[in-house]
């Protein structure tokens, strides 16, 4: 009985702490160090991660067992300092993603004032982490870097008072409205992204819309996570409200999905049959009563008796319980690569096959359909002055605006892992993970190409896709190329001006986000128009067809969004085909195709050879002329001297 009461007391204590943490933006401050025998381990946490062990306990909650490896990244010893963004799963089903920011530093052990017994190496490697309920990556990073610097300057890691003060300060200064304005976008620069990836920025945007398995690769981690999160910031509302379910995974040794279903007395097959992905037709109206028994969601919304927190909690419990449509271990890893519609619509196979055959016939005529007869849209988006209304999504469980943004991309087993530790490698092939956008620094992730649909080499600004069909889907249309050229031209103007760079509206970070917001809003508005095939061709018919089969489009299409009536349908850069489009297409082809790259490299090497040969020829010819000139000068001078000598001799003889 005594043991039972003790366990109950511990559970109550933990429950009270979690309830208190609900009101706090910052959940924990954690210090992770590298031990020469034990590897990465937690050395300090405030409040304690495991209350029973206190601040200096090394134990971790089962859900956060990868925390030390995320906070102290692989290969960190190669850098003096680094910054990591990472996501942790919720510790219980009624919570959301936990957002982590870690600042890593490495110093010489010999400069420590107090050297502890376990410090046996020449350097000390530690990270100070903030675990937050809100995705304030850049803001947390700015504050954390200052404190980490001060913590290391103490040269005595037992001085933990500064870390406790950091926890109190952050929670007092960051309120629930911290996501308002542009605070969530600090340190995320779409301008730098466009300068680096140029027209490929749009390919990255489309790749994530298709919910593919996308792996970003780069070292060190700071640039990796910054690039990945900047791409996501192009999606309206994604950073602020779209990542709440982006880290719904379980560690390797946890209970299986089958046990979870048995505990709740549910039949897995019946439960899958009521998932959102089982919409019978893309163009049909979604009925809440037919898809969700007893219309529970509809009752919650109309009666307005359930708070958003309760509604979101209910949705997330369902998210945790509901397996992906292809949760069978026998399913192929390439199921989601090819976007086989039979996986999404088992009862709609014949209709989808007919649609695919029709699209294959249209593929030949895509180039002709790019020539749109309508006039180009010349009105560009301005700064957002309209008040955005955020409401709980009926189906997605995310907080949405009046346009249905953010799209429900990172839900139902589609993960966002800005940095992925090597210990999480199994998630890439987990049957409960239908896709991911992940960042990695370890070469092992990149070498196993069969586990991802696309690998983004950030250093080289390259996008490697292994499936020819996927490359067809991602081919940019003429209107897309115009859009890309428009972005690049505005971003590159006056970029060398020290005083004006990035400070203006046009070509600035917010301006670029506004362009992509217009792009996705126009695309969504176009899908709602009757006889829209010609307008959708400007986005790519193959791409749009594949996108309509994704989970995020189905969820968005299942609700009505009257605000989209104010958005002009059609591509923002639609218009008649002209000579400049031919130049854009040629430039794009040369930069992207392997043959074009080889041709471009050959032209560059040839031009260099010509220049070098020309210099060599001019130098040799010039040298020969100079030598001839000096020889002639020497000959003339000698001749003159001889003539003068003979003349003087004659004159002497006469006298």
Question: What do you see in this structure?
Answer:
- The protein has helices at 2-22, 67-71, 137-153, 161-173, 190-197, 200-209, 221-232, 238-241, 257-263, 268-272, 288-291, 296-303, 308-321, 341-344, 349-363, 366-369, 443-447, 468-474, 478-492, 509-527, 533-536, 541-547, 551-557, 579-592, 594-654; strands spanning 26-35, 39-46, 81-88, 98-108, 123-132, 213-217, 391-392, 399-400, 414-417, 435-440, 454-457, 462-465.
- The strands form three sheets. A five-stranded antiparallel sheet has the order 2-1-5-4-3. The chain has a five-stranded mixed sheet with strand order 9-10-6-11-12.
- It has 655 residues and is α/β, with parallel strands linked by helices.
- The longest helix is centred in the last third of the chain and has 61 residues, at 594-654.
- The chain starts with a helix and ends with a helix.
Essential attributes:
single chain; 655 residues; alpha/beta; five-stranded antiparallel β-sheet; five-stranded mixed β-sheet; 25 helices; 11% strand; globular; disordered N terminus
Strand content: 5-15%
Rounded mean pLDDT is 74
* Count of runs of 4 or more consecutive helical residues: 25
How does the helix and strand content classify structurally? alpha/beta
């Amino acid at each position: 009985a005594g043991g039972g009461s003790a366990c109950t007391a511990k559970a109550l204590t933990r429950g009270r702490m979690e309830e208190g943490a609900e009101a706090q933006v910052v959940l924990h401050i954690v210090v992770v160090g590298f031990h020469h025998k034990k590897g990465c381990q937690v050395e300090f946490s405030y409040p304690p991660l495991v209350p029973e062990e206190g601040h200096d306990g090394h134990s971790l909650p089962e859900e956060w067992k990868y925390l030390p490896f995320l906070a102290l990244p692989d290969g960190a010893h190669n850098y003096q300092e680094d910054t990591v963004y990472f996501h942790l799963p919720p510790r219980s089903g009624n919570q959301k993603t936990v957002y982590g920011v870690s600042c890593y530093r490495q110093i010489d052990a010999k400069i420590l004032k107090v050297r502890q017994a376990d410090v046996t190496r020449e350097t000390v490697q530690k990270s100070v982490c903030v675990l937050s309920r809100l995705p304030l990556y850049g803001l947390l990073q700015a504050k954390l870097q200052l404190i980490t610097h001060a913590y290391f300057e103490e040269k005595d890691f037992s001085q933990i008072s500064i870390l406790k003060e950091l926890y109190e300060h952050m929670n007092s200064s960051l309120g629930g409205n911290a996501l308002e304005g542009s605070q969530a976008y600090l340190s995320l620069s779409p301008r730098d992204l466009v300068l680096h990836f140029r027209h490929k920025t749009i390919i990255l945007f489309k790749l994530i819309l298709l919910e593919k398995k996308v792996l970003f690769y780069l070292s060190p981690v700071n640039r990796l996570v910054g690039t990945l999160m900047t791409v996501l910031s192009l999606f309206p509302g994604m950073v602020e409200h779209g990542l709440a379910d982006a880290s719904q995974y379980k560690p390797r040794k946890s209970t299986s999905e089958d046990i979870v279903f048995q505990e709740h007395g549910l039949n897995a097959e019946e439960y899958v049959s009521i998932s959102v992905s089982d919409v019978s037709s893309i163009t049909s109206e979604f009925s809440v009563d037919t898809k969700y028994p007893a219309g529970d969601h509809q009752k919650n919304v109309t009666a307005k008796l359930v708070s958003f927190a309760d509604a979101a909690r209910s949705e997330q419990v369902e998210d945790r319980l509901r397996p992906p449509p292809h949760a069978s271990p026998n399913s192929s890893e390439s199921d989601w690569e090819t976007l086989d519609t039979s996986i999404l619509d088992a009862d709609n196979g014949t209709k989808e096959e007919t649609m695919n055959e029709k699209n294959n016939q249209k593929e030949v005529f895509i180039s002709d359909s790019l020539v749109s007869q309508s006039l180009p849209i010349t009105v560009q988006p301005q700064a957002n002055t309209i008040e955005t209304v955020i409401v709980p999504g009926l189906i997605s469980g995310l907080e949405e605006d009046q346009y249905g943004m953010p799209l429900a991309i990172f839900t139902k087993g589609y993960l966002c892992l800005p940095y992925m530790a090597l210990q999480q490698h199994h998630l890439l092939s987990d049957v409960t993970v239908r896709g991911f956008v992940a960042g990695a620094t370890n070469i092992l992730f990149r070498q196993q190409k069969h586990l991802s649909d696309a690998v983004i080499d950030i250093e080289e600004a390259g996008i490697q896709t292994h499936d020819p069909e996927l490359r067809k889907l991602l081919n940019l249309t003429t209107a897309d190329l115009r859009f890309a050229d428009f972005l690049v031209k505005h971003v590159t103007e006056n970029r060398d001006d020290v005083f004006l760079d990035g400070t203006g509206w046009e070509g600035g970070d917010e301006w670029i986000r506004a362009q992509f917001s217009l792009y996705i809003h126009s695309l969504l508005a176009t899908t709602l128009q009757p006889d829209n095939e010609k307008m959708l061709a400007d986005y790519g018919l193959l791409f749009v067809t594949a996108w309509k089969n994704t989970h995020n489009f189905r969820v968005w299409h299942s609700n009505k969004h009257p605000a989209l009536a104010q958005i002009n349908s059609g591509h923002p850069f639609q218009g008649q085909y002209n000579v400049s489009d031919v130049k854009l297409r040629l430039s794009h082809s040369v930069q992207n195709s392997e043959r074009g790259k080889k041709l471009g490299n050959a032209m560059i090497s040839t031009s260099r050879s010509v220049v070098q040969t020309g210099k060599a020829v001019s130098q040799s010819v010039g040298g020969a002329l100079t030598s001839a000139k000096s020889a002639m000068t020497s000959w003339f001078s000698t001749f003159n001297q001889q003539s003068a000598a003979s003349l003087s001799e004659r004159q002497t003889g006469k006298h």
